[in-house]
Write a structure and sequence with these properties.
Chain lengths: 455, 455
C-alpha cells in the first residue's frame, strides 16, 4: 500500500501547506480582497501542478476566477470524475472574537484554526493530496479526473452559471464529487441525499402617497401595514401549513421508506431547542421536525419594514409596508413556478383600499435530490463504510447550494457531496477549525473512492 | 385700529422669527434632541418677554420642560384666559422626501416650509403676536391672559398630567383656548366639538434566541414575523371592523341628529383621495367616511420591524418581530380599558411556537367632546364668523390632543381649539408647511377674541 505510506510520510508537509493556503485572506465578499482571491487561485493551480495534475490553470469569469486541471490518461473505458471545491472564504469579522488571528492559522489540539481551514480550504486540498499520493506512487490514476475549483462560493457563485454553460465540454464528466461537504460527526459518516432550493421575493403594499397622520386619516383609508399582515396571514395557517394554492403541487411526497430512513437517525428535540433558543418546535402538521427541516418546503418571512420603527411612538398611517420572504423548495418544485403561485396568491388576497406588488428576487435555485439507486453515491457510501466502520446515514439538508443545481442543470450529473468537515467547526463564525484526523481520513477516502470507481 | 397697523408693520419680522423658531429641531421623540427641545423652550420664554408678557419662564417637568408667562392686569371683573400651544415637533424622517431640509425652513409661495411650521410653531406664535400687538399699541389687554406652552405634545404629553396637577393654582382660568388647531379650509372656519383619545402599544413576538439560518431552521421552528402578521390579522376584519372583543363596548353611538349634522358639511371623496393619494376609502362598514374619521374609533399599525430590511435578501428566520399600534378613541372609551382588551386579545391569539409580549405605550389620552351650549366656543364662533364672513362648521377631529383631556380633568374647563393650521399642511409628513395668510388672519382673530371675551 505505497499510497498509504506516502500519505503518512508527507502528512506534516500537507499540514504546513494548508497553513500557507489559509494565510491567504481570499474573502470573496470584500472588494479589498480581490487580489487575495486571485492569489489563492494561483496557489491552487501551482499545487495541482505539484501534485502531478496536468494543464492546471486559472481561468477568468465575469467575477472571481476559477481553477481547472485534469489527468485523463486512465483510458476511455474508465469513468471521468469531476471534483469540485472552493478556495474563497467567508469574511472573518468580528476579529476580536477569534482566539488566534483568522489569517495566521495555528495547529492546536489536533486541529488547524483559521478562516477557511474547514470551509473549504482543508476540504478542497483533500482530493488533491489523494491524487498526488496515487500519481507519486503508482504513477497513474485508476479513473480520469478533472478538478474544478471556484473562488465565489461564499457569495452565492453569481458568475458560475455562465462560466459553466460556456465550458460544458471542458467540465463534462460521468460523476461529480464535491469536496465541500460535511460528515455527520467525527465517527459517523453520511451521504447527503437532498438539498433544498430557494425562491425569493418581496411583497410591497402601498396605500397613501406618503405617511399620513393616523388621527386625521385613520378609519378613512386602509392601513398598508395591516393589509400586509392580512396578506401574509393568508399564506400560512395557524398550525404551519402553507396555504398558497399550488404551493405543494410539485412536491415529491416522502415514501414510507424515506420516513423510516429519517426516523432511524438520532434526533434530540431538547438539544435542537437549546441550539436555537426557540420556545418550541413548530411547522407543517403531519411531519416530524426533522422531516420538515430536511424534506418539506417552507415559507419564511425574512424581514418586515413599515412606518415608524424607532424608539417610542410616531402616530403615522404608513404609506407602504414591505415583507421579504423566501421559500425553501424540495424536489420537484420549480422556483419560477413557486414565485408564480405566490404572486397570484398575493394579488388574489390583497385587501381593499391598498395595492400590492409582488417583486420576484434574484438568486433562486432549484432543489436537489439524488435519484434512487444513484451509482456514484452508492460507491461513496461503500467507501465511507469501509473507512468509518459503519454505514453512512442518508441525510438531507435544509440549506441551498446553488452550484449543485448549476452543475446538474449544465452537465446533467447529480454531484455527490464527499467532504470531511463537520457542522461544529464554526464554518461561518469566529474560531473556525478543521480536524487533522478528518484531513487524513479524507485523503484515504478519496484514494479508495477513485479505486472503487474504476472497478 | 392701531393693533392692525402694528400687525401689518411687523409681519415681515414675525415671519423671520418663525423661521428662526423652526430652525430649532425640537423633536420630542428623539433622545438626541433633548437639548434642542430645551433650546426651543428658552426661545419661547424670551419671545413672550419680548411681547410684553410678564414673568415668562421655563419650568421643569419630569420630561421636556414647559413655558409659562402671564399678563393679569385687566381687573378682577374680567375673565382669565389660558392659551395653550406646543413647541416640540414630530420627527422629520424620511429626510430624503423633503423638497427642502426640514430644519432649514424657507418661504415659498406664501408658505413657510419646514418641520413644525404648521404644527405647532406657527400656530403657537399667533396668540403671542396678537398679545404683543395689543400691549405695544394699547399698553394693556382687555382680559387677563396666561400662556402655557409644552414641549412634549408630539409624544403624547406623558409628563404633563403630574405637572398640571401640581400647578392648578398657576394655570387656573375661566376659559382655555388652544392655539394648536385647524380651520376647515382657508376660507371656511370651524369649531371642533370633539377629539379622539388615543391608546398606544407595541406587540413584540419572539422566537429563537437570535436570527437563524432560514434554510437550516425554516420549517423546524415558528417564524416570529409570520406570527406577528397572524396576530395583527385577527385584530381587524377584511372589511375594516375592529375584531377585538370589547373594543366598541363604551362607544357613544352617533344620534340621527349627529349624523345629519356631519352630513351637512360638504365632503368630496375625490378630493379626499387626491389629498392622501390613497387608491380608495376604506373602513368600518355602516358609516360614512367622515363619520369614521370623526366619530368612530380606529386601530392602526404605525410601524413594523423584523429581520433583514436592507437591499436584497438575507435568508434569516428572525428572532423577533415588532408592531407599533395606536387606537383612536371616541367618547366614552377609556384608554386603559382599551389597552386591557387589546392585551387580552393578543395573548388569546398568539400562535404556537412563539411568545407575544404586549407593551402598553406611554401617553394615552381620553376622548374629548364639548358639552352642548358651551359658552367659550360660542364666542369663538362669533369671532370666526366676523373674520371669515361665514359661520363656522361644527366639526369633529380624528386626532388626539391629550392636553385637552388633561386640562379638562385638572382645571374643569373644556378648552376651545382656536388655531389656524389646515389638515393639508403635511403636519406629520415630509414637506410640512404653514400658510402665511392664515398666520396673519389668526393674529387678528386672537385680538378680536380677547376683545369679545372682555365684553
Amino acid at each position: 500500500m505505497a499510497w498509504q505510506s506516502y500519505l503518512d510520510a508527507e502528512q506534516a508537509r500537507f499540514v504546513q501547506e494548508l497553513l500557507a493556503f489559509v494565510r491567504i485572506p481570499s474573502v470573496s465578499a470584500k472588494p479589498e480582497n480581490i487580489a487575495d482571491v486571485a492569489r489563492a487561485a494561483d496557489w491552487v493551480a501551482a499545487r495541482l501542478t505539484a501534485a502531478g495534475v496536468q494543464g492546471a490553470q486559472v481561468l477568468p469569469t465575469t467575477g472571481h476566477p476559477v481553477v481547472y486541471g485534469d489527468w485523463l490518461h486512465a483510458g476511455a473505458d474508465k469513468p471521468t470524475v469531476l471534483i469540485y471545491g472552493h478556495f474563497d472564504v467567508q469574511p472573518a469579522e468580528p476579529f476580536d472574537l477569534w482566539d488566534s488571528p483568522p489569517f495566521q492559522p495555528v495547529v492546536r489540539d489536533g486541529r488547524v484554526w483559521g478562516r477557511g481551514a474547514s470551509d473549504d480550504k482543508g476540504g478542497m486540498m483533500v482530493p488533491i493530496l489523494a491524487v498526488e499520493a496515487l500519481l507519486k506512487t503508482a504513477g497513474r490514476l485508476p479513473v480520469n479526473v478533472k478538478f474544478f475549483f471556484e473562488g465565489q462560493e461564499e457569495i452565492g457563485s453569481p458568475d458560475l452559471p455562465p462560466f459553466v454553460a460556456a465550458n460544458v465540454a471542458r467540465l463534462t464528466a460521468d460523476m461529480i464529487f464535491s469536496a465541500d461537504g460535511l460528515q455527520y460527526s467525527p465517527d459517523q459518516p453520511q451521504i447527503v441525499e437532498a438539498l433544498k432550493g430557494i425562491a425569493k421575493a418581496e411583497i410591497v403594499v402601498r396605500g397613501p402617497r406618503s405617511d399620513q397622520h393616523s388621527g386625521l386619516h385613520g378609519g378613512g383609508i386602509a392601513n398598508p401595514a395591516m393589509a400586509l399582515a392580512q396578506i401574509l396571514a393568508t399564506m400560512k395557517s395557524a398550525d404551519g401549513l402553507v396555504t398558497v394554492a399550488g404551493f405543494y403541487d410539485d412536491v415529491i411526497d416522502l415514501t414510507p421508506q424515506d420516513r423510516a430512513a429519517i426516523a432511524r437517525i438520532p434526533y434530540d428535540e431538547a438539544s435542537y431547542l437549546a441550539e436555537t433558543g426557540a420556545p418550541a418546535v413548530f411547522g407543517e402538521p403531519g411531519y416530524s421536525t426533522r422531516e420538515r427541516l430536511w424534506a418539506r418546503p417552507t415559507l419564511d418571512v425574512n424581514g418586515l419594514t413599515s412606518g415608524w420603527q424607532g424608539i417610542g411612538s410616531k402616530t403615522v398611517l404608513p404609506a407602504e409596508a414591505r415583507a421579504k420572504i423566501t421559500c425553501r423548495l424540495v424536489a420537484d418544485q420549480d422556483p419560477a413556478r413557486v414565485l408564480a403561485v405566490l404572486a397570484a396568491h398575493v394579488q388574489a388576497h390583497c385587501p381593499a383600499g391598498v395595492t400590492a406588488e409582488f417583486q420576484p428576487g434574484q438568486g433562486g435555485a432549484g432543489p436537489f435530490l439524488l435519484p434512487s439507486g444513484h451509482n456514484a453515491s452508492g460507491i461513496a457510501a461503500q467507501v465511507l463504510e469501509e473507512i468509518y466502520g459503519k454505514a453512512p446515514y442518508r441525510t438531507r439538508l435544509g440549506g441551498s447550494i446553488p452550484v449543485m443545481t448549476t452543475l446538474l442543470g449544465a452537465l446533467g450529473v447529480h454531484a455527490v457531496m464527499f467532504g470531511f468537515s463537520h457542522d461544529d467547526e464554526n464554518l461561518h463564525a469566529p474560531n473556525e477549525f478543521f480536524r487533522l484526523d478528518a484531513f487524513r481520513k479524507g485523503q484515504e477516502a478519496y484514494v479508495r473512492l477513485l479505486q472503487r470507481l474504476a472497478a
